[in-house]
Design goal:
Glutaredoxin, 10 helices
């Protein structure tokens, strides 16, 4: 079974705009997804990236145009200046890690629900009630918020180190078990073609 290591940030607009396409591609090819939320600002700092707020105005303007185009193409609702961004990504990321360890729900739906909360629903994903709603909607127990904090924190740190060691530098970043690397929601077609043997 092919494996896809999926490095992402729950704050990333481009991760949100990937929707559930990764899950659809994985199902098509019988691939297993390893969900690896990470600290995107730490990843930028370690790999030569710049936080969005510190970029040159030309890059900031272009990023916004890209977001508008991508949202239009995907049809996903999006607030381009959400009320709770940036926020503390750690609690929701820990909950995703706890859910992955617990099993029994839909991890892809959970991740997308958290991202949708930021980019379409004007919710603060650092708040326990918001995280609980996302967990329950995806088939998990709300109690995972509290039960996996230590393990989640440790794995969150390891995910960052793994991402750097594997060659990731942004989010979303998809890496196959054959070390084929794909950066960005707009590279999902390439990932699909790669898994088909066409690329």
């Amino acid at each position: 079974m092919p494996q896809i290591n999926y490095y992402f940030s729950v704050l990333s607009p481009f991760t949100y705009l990937s929707g559930l396409r990764l899950e659809e591609i994985a199902a098509k090819h019988g691939a297993d997804i390893q969900y690896k939320p990470l600290d995107i600002m730490a990843l930028f700092a370690r790999t030569g990236g710049t936080p969005p707020k510190d970029r040159h105005p030309n890059r900031i303007d272009y990023r916004m145009q890209e977001l508008v185009r991508a949202a239009t193409k995907t049809g996903l609702p999006m607030n381009f200046n959400p009320a709770h961004w940036p926020t503390n990504a750690a609690p929701a990321s820990y909950a995703i890690i706890a859910a992955a360890n617990a099993g029994g729900g839909d991890l892809g739906a959970l991740c997308h629900s958290v991202l949708r909360a930021v980019w379409a629903e004007e919710k603060d994903i650092a708040q326990d009630d918001v995280i609980a709603q996302c967990l329950v909607a995806a088939g998990y127990e709300a109690s995972l918020i509290n039960s996996g904090m230590l393990t989640g924190a440790e794995q969150y740190g390891r995910n960052l180190e793994e991402a750097i060691d594997a060659g990731a530098f942004g989010a979303p970043f998809y890496i196959t078990d054959g070390d084929a690397r794909f950066w960005g929601h707009d590279r999902l077609d390439d990932l699909d073609a790669h898994l088909s043997g066409d690329l």
